[in-house]
Write a structure and sequence with these properties.
The complex is a heterodimer. Chain A has helices spanning 8-22, 28-52, 84-101, 110-129, 133-142, 144-154, 159-187, 194-199, 204-221, 230-237, 240-265, 267-293, 298-318, 322-353, 369-382, 389-404, 406-430, 448-466, 469-486, and strands at residues 61-69, 74-80. By secondary structure, chain A is mainly α. Chain A has a two-stranded antiparallel ribbon with strand order 1-2. In chain A, a hairpin with a 4-residue loop joins strand 1 (61-69) and strand 2. Chain A is globular, with a radius of gyration of 22 Å. Chain B has helices spanning 2-10, 12-27, 37-57, 76-103, 108-126, 130-148, 155-186, 191-201, 206-223, 231-238, 241-266, 271-294, 299-323, 331-357, 374-377, 379-392, 399-413, 417-443, 459-477, 480-489; strands spanning 64-67, 72-75, 358-360, 363-364, 454-455. Chain B has a three-stranded antiparallel beta sheet with strand order 4-3-5. A two-stranded antiparallel ribbon of chain B has the order 1-2. The longest helix of chain B has 32 residues, at 155-186. Classes of the chains: A mainly alpha, B mainly alpha. The interface between A and B is large, with 40 and 38 residues.
């Protein structure tokens, strides 16, 4: 335990904000360096946590707990466990790369752009480390504005539509979350403490409603089929850094929400909804892959492949066993690395040819050998080649699914075959096609900055692919603890509220069916 | 005589405001046009004196001083609203200085009327008798009618004043009719007597219900709640911007204060009836306000519909108070309304201050189109407008979120989770039109052929904007002081 010690997590949150504030007084060129320095500093602060983290402990670590609002009691409460640690590390690792990727791509209002990136970093890290539900919600919602501006100000030609669509979709999804938070507060003993709420037992009908409210918020963010339609627009129109943040980090917040809230707080509802969730996941896997096959725009192709890959994550979560959930968390990190890298690759080629169409970017292997090599690495990782990171994650998810249902596994595996199809077909054209003569002069191979952006991710691809154990071992305790707590016995029977009673959310839901300590 | 003296002492802040108003109007003819600023500073001086007095008047929180044989009360509840009203009025006066000059309507009476309206509002929040409250309402409204038509050269301003006057007088009549019915039932217009008469009479008397409905209608006009909101868009658009800000913030706060006191202290026995009535009103108010705001092209008109929607949100807190089942009773609901309106004041004042600052040629930049590309030309003004719009949309970490947080928490506590869910979905709808302002400022290129808008700034206006943005951000991050102030103040409302 590192409780009460050095405020690592607060430092992680504050540093980017300091950088963002500095943007008001600097010139464009210094803005880039300050953003890079702030994100690298954040990475340097986060890295020691990897070693300081105690894999044997199942509690939250590096906790901070400060009273913030007295009525109702809301705390500035932070902490890390085996599920959030990898996600935080991934977030702070991706952010410097986003700054590097925007180095020459962003030429207008650079200070504002960098400030938005840094505010996003604080909000995203905050989502993963918050242990108070209201604090979580504030970070969750605070991301909307900077992301809206990132897409809307610095995005592509259709950016206005994509930005408002992203904004309204995610906002509409998450407002119901707030109602659910209040309901939990009044049923769970007047607290917003996530850990305390995760221990409570709630009436089955209430769990159903809350699950649906959580689902609205998280499924839009993941995005699960059929709530995914904002994603291709947002990805395509966002600037490269925005696409990377969206794909690598933002999407993980939905699945993180399922893991942190839906499963531990609403175990009964999670079990009841499992068939639906698994079905939606499999539909997403196959539909996303199928759509990816048809795309002519590289960014759209990767966007739809994200829908497919995130389907594996939700599948792993909702088969509700250790293999599935660990595979899901691993796959969240893997998708962050691989898809982030693929978007970076597309951004680099776009800077050269000003086109994202596959037809305009063919045969890059001979003019850009380094680029082609890295692109192939990430593409193979994306299709789950053994030896790369995604293989481990997808394999674990499929093992978990197999324990739940063999038929579901068979359908989910179809997604891997389709992934091989759309990825290899893309590679065949983009890397090994016949180059277009008029594009050739524009195709300079990667410069040092671009290599510095991609090579770390390539190393991570192989590191996780070949040695997944350090990462997985850090999750064990947290995942086991969560699964154990999910099977906590229901204190009271649910008959009182079931049997077709029109489940009033709070008005006359009777006394909460729980221990004496928790009462309205 | 000594009793009379304490009565006057209790009303000292009101007396000072009225005296200052008379002084301003008397001094106006002999003040040269170039020195009219002095009248504004005189008004501000009176306000700060009153602020000190009001805060000093109540040293123990639960004390409740009645004056003039219970016609007015000085309690913590009234103090909360008065402090808010002083602040809002002061900021409005500061904001008016450059605006009125730019519009060439810098008249001395303006400050006199603001102070008269303020004194009416102070009587409203302190009134413990329906007639006192009615008098305060009328004093406020009459002053506002005049201020609305202040821009005599603009037909729109005159039209707004006429509409406001006719509809306002109509609503006052309805309110008065309700009051007279209640008087017939209770034999008194004192809130306490009405409450006890309802207690003995029973709540099922149809006449009492009709009277309650009439009073509710009268107040709904003042609150701009649907379906009694028709005057709002025209008046908000036509009135000079500083007057619009004053109406949207101060008049709304005072109306809510009096409204809550009447319905809790006087008609509390009919809770079950009026909470259902206001539930319906709140629902249609926020739905209509938010939906119609989407299609507006004039930003003042858009903010008028937005203010209608915000009245709907605040009403939800009031409904939650009426339907409260929890151990803390109606306190969270009533306090949430107070918190909501206090926070709403900051963002709305700020937004109107930015609008009043923007000039396009000779006229005000009040079309949403006029904000096109503002972020390129005036980054700071655009950023401030962004903060206010985000806050109005209720997105954290701004004050708007805190306001919605408490209102919807009270609603869920009162078993109205479904209402909170609907209201929040419409809050998401509202984000569309607030974000459209952000969109034109940040994401559209200014048309090079069009006349570039410029800003009319002054130190006073900068101060107003600084206060507004500080309130929006600081209360968004640290709402504790305001929340505990509201929670303590609401306890005297019984």
């Amino acid at each position: 335990m590192h409780s009460g010690g050095f405020p690592w997590l607060s430092l992680l949150l504050v540093l980017p904000l300091v950088g963002a504030a500095a943007m008001y007084v600097v010139t464009e060129s210094t803005a880039r360096w300050i953003a890079l320095a702030a994100t690298l500093a954040d990475l340097c602060i986060a890295l020691p946590l990897w070693w300081l983290f105690d894999p044997q402990a199942s509690q939250m670590q590096f906790t901070e707990h400060v009273a913030w609002i007295t009525a109702p009691p809301i705390y500035y409460s932070l902490g890390l466990d085996g599920i959030s640690l990898p996600l935080v590390l991934m977030t702070v690792a991706i952010m410097p790369l986003c700054v590097l990727a925007s180095w020459t791509a962003i030429t207008t209002r650079v200070q504002g752009f960098m400030a938005m990136l840094l505010i996003m970093e604080t909000a995203m890290v905050g989502v993963f480390v918050a242990l108070d539900f209201v604090l979580f919600y504030i970070f969750w919602e605070a991301m909307l504005i900077p992301m809206y501006l990132l897409i809307g100000v610095w995005g592509g030609p259709n950016r206005l539509y994509a930005a408002i669509k992203f904004f309204l979709y995610t906002l509409a999804g998450s407002v119901l979350l707030l109602v659910a938070i209040f309901a939990l507060y009044f049923y769970g003993g007047h607290t917003f403490d996530i850990l305390a709420l995760s221990q409570g037992t709630y009436p089955a009908s209430l769990q159903m409603w809350l699950f649906l409210a959580f689902f609205a918020a998280f499924a839009v963010k993941v995005p699960m089929f059929p709530f995914h339609t904002w994603l291709p627009d947002a990805h395509v129109e966002a600037p490269t850094a925005g696409s990377v943040i969206l794909a690598s980090i933002l999407l993980k917040m939905g699945t993180y929400g399922f893991l942190r809230f839906s499963l531990p707080m609403l175990p009964d509802a999670s079990r009841s909804f499992t068939p639906m969730m698994v079905a939606l996941s499999i539909v997403a896997i196959i539909y996303g892959a199928y759509m990816a096959l048809a795309q002519v725009d590289l960014k759209k192709l990767i966007a739809y492949s994200s829908v497919s890959h995130m389907g594996f994550v939700t599948l792993g979560i909702f088969v509700l066993n250790q293999q599935g959930i660990e595979g899901a968390v691993l796959q969240m990190v893997n998708h962050g690395i691989t898809t982030g890298a693929l978007f970076l690759c597309v951004g680099m080629i776009y800077e050269r040819t000003h086109s994202r169409l596959i037809a305009d970017n063919v045969g890059l292997a001979s003019p850009m050998p380094q680029y082609a090599t890295l692109l192939v690495i990430f593409a193979l990782s994306s299709l789950g080649l053994p030896g790369t990171n995604s293989f481990v994650g997808e394999f674990l998810v499929l093992v978990g699914t197999f324990l739940w249902s063999k038929v579901a596994t068979a359908f989910a595996s179809l997604g891997i075959i389709l992934a091989a199809a759309y990825i290899l077909w893309m590679i065949q054209r983009v890397v090994f096609g016949v180059p277009l003569p008029h594009q050739l002069p524009k195709l300079k191979d990667l410069n040092r900055r671009e290599l510095a952006t991609l090579v770390p991710l390539a190393l991570l691809v192989f590191w996780i692919g070949l040695f997944p154990n350090p990462l997985v071992s850090r999750m064990h305790q947290s995942v086991n603890g969560m699964i154990a707590s999910m099977s906590r016995t229901k204190v009271a029977p649910t008959t009182q509220l079931s049997a077709g009673e029109a489940a009033p959310l709070l008005a006359d839901g009777g006394t909460p069916l729980t221990t004496e300590g928790i009462s309205r | 005589m000594s009793l009379y003296g304490t009565d006057l002492l209790a009303l000292l802040p009101e007396l000072i405001v009225v005296a200052a108003a008379c002084l301003v109007i008397a001094l106006d003819p002999i003040t040269p046009a170039s020195r009219r600023d002095l009248l504004a500073w005189l008004s501000l001086g009176a306000l700060s004196l009153c602020l000190g007095l009001t805060v000093g008047q109540i040293n123990t929180l639960n004390i409740r001083v009645s004056a003039f044989s219970d016609l007015v009360v000085i309690d913590a509840y009234a103090r909360f609203w008065k402090v808010l009203l002083y602040g809002v009025t002061g900021l409005t006066i500061l904001m008016s200085l450059p605006y009125l000059k730019a519009e060439r309507i810098h008249l001395g009476e303006y400050y006199g009327f603001i102070l008269l309206a303020l004194s009416g509002m102070m009587v409203m929040v302190s009134g413990a008798d329906l007639l006192t409250i009615y008098l305060g309402t009328e004093l406020m409204s009459l002053s506002l009618y005049v201020m609305t038509g202040l821009n005599r050269s603009k037909p729109r301003s005159l039209e707004a004043a006429a509409k406001y006057f006719v509809l306002g007088a109509f609503s006052s009549g309805i309110l008065l009719y309700g009051i007279s019915l209640l008087y017939g039932m209770a034999g008194s217009t004192k809130l306490a007597s009405i409450a006890s008469a309802i207690g003995t009479h029973g709540a099922n008397d149809p006449l009492v219900l009709i009277a309650t409905i009439l009073v509710a209608v009268g107040f709904s006009f003042k609150l701009a709640a649907v379906p009694f909101h028709m005057w709002t868009p025209d008046v908000y658009q036509g009135a000079p911007t500083s007057v619009t800000a004053f109406m949207a913030v101060a008049a709304k706060a005072a109306s809510f204060a009096a409204f809550m006191r009447v319905f809790v202290e006087g008609l509390g026995g009919l809770k079950a009836d009026w909470s259902l009535l206001f539930l319906l009103i709140a629902l249609v108010t926020l739905v209509l306000g938010n939906v119609v705001a989407i299609v507006q092209t004039n930003i003042k008109r858009m903010l008028a519909y937005s203010s209608i929607a915000h009245a709907g949100y605040a009403l939800i807190g009031f409904v939650a108070a009426g339907r409260a089942v929890g151990p803390s009773g109606s306190t969270p609901g009533l306090a949430s309304v107070m918190i909501y309106l206090a926070l709403y004041s900051f963002m709305t004042l700020g937004a109107f201050a930015v609008i009043g600052m923007l000039r396009k040629g000779e006229r005000e930049g009040e079309e949403i189109e006029d904000f096109t590309g503002l972020a390129k030309r005036q980054p700071l003004a655009a950023f401030l407008m962004l903060v206010f719009m985000v806050s109005l949309a209720g997105i954290p970490p701004t004050a708007g979120f805190i306001g919605k947080f408490y209102v919807f928490m009270a609603a869920v506590d009162a078993g109205l989770a479904w209402l909170a869910a609907i209201a929040l979905l419409f809050a998401a709808v509202s984000a569309y039109y607030y974000m459209r302002v952000v969109m034109v400022m940040y994401m559209r290129e200014p048309d090079p052929a069009a006349v570039a808008p410029r800003l009319v700034t002054s130190p006073a206006l900068s101060f107003v904007l600084a206060c507004a943005v500080a309130g929006v951000i600081l209360f968004g991050l640290f709402p504790n002081p305001l929340v505990s102030f509201a929670l303590q103040s609401v306890l005297t409302l019984k």
